[in-house]
Amino acid sequence: MAQVQAKPETAEEKLARLEHENRELLAQAEKLKEQIKSAPRGNVYFKLTQARLPGTNGPNDKGMTTSGRISMYGIQRFPITLGIDGWNRVLSALTGDSYKKFVAENASKFSHKE
Description:
about 110 residues, alpha+beta, three-stranded antiparallel sheet
């Protein structure tokens, strides 16, 4: 069987492809800006993260698992993302006596935003 070799991309074809990709990226950036603008401010909220295909962010990107993760927004600059087991562990630690005792013992060492 003879292999058919793809002909090299011409400069015009490459320019057209890159312009198309640029338009797609700009549209995606606008969509993300709108999501940021519409995101609740000052409140903590949760979102279920969607799976990402391997290779999305480059050739060495392994992607995410197919199971969703829960992301909490509004606490810090970036979301806190854990699986359901991780959130259950955090919640059980926060509702336990060891957390309350730790906070009470170290209250003078914490900084607070005003």
